UniProtKB/TrEMBL annotation:
It comes from the Eukaryota. It holds the Pfam family ABM. Residues 61-149 form the ABM domain. This is ABM domain-containing protein.
Length: 170
């Protein structure tokens, strides 16, 4: 996904505007409108964040995916999920992607997925790493996954959600 830089050298409205469904649909349907801008466009979420203020309001969609795996498959599930989380965290529409495990029942996990806009969840589900993860963990499930959608309230700014510059995801 491309984010467009303005003539002043800053990215305007990274998460709120250029990631919006409208811009994505226009760019897809009418690529000629964006042909001249690719020279000043940035594709990297990191580049976009470099031009964004940490105080920018975050209108994010948070999805908690509750997972119970079969006993004995916890390590294999965690390994596959960490690989998926690292790759997912690099997607332009994802602010963060956390993997957490229940302390008193290690067969239970929660995937905390924070999306920057309403189209990012569908885009995530089309990525190679997600499809590979889904296939890898399918037989490990003790029961079907359950996803619940939330709206962020606090922190209210992108600085409270996105990974800090220089943070290694490996």
């Amino acid at each position: 996904m491309w984010r467009l830089a303005s003539s002043r050298g800053v990215v305007r409205g990274c998460a709120a505007y250029y990631d919006s469904a409208h811009i994505i649909s226009v760019a897809t349907a009418e690529p000629s409108k964006f042909a001249k801008t690719k020279a000043i466009a940035v594709k990297s979420r990191i580049m976009c964040r470099a031009f964004s203020s940490p105080g920018t309001i975050a209108n994010y969609q948070c999805v908690h995916v509750f997972v119970t795996v079969k006993p004995g498959s916890e390590g294999e599930f965690l390994s596959a999920s960490l690989a998926n989380a690292r790759a997912s965290s690099r997607e332009p529409g994802i602010a963060r992607f956390d993997v957490i495990q229940q302390v008193d029942d290690p067969t239970k996990f929660v995937l905390v997925e924070v999306y920057k806009n309403d189209v990012a969840p569908a885009a995530h589900k089309e990525t190679d790493h997600y499809l590979a993860w889904r296939a890898a963990v399918e037989e490990m499930m003790a029961e079907p996954r359950k996803a619940i959608k939330y709206k962020n309230l606090f922190p209210a700014t992108v600085g409270g959600w996105e990974y800090a510059d220089g943070v290694s995801l490996d």
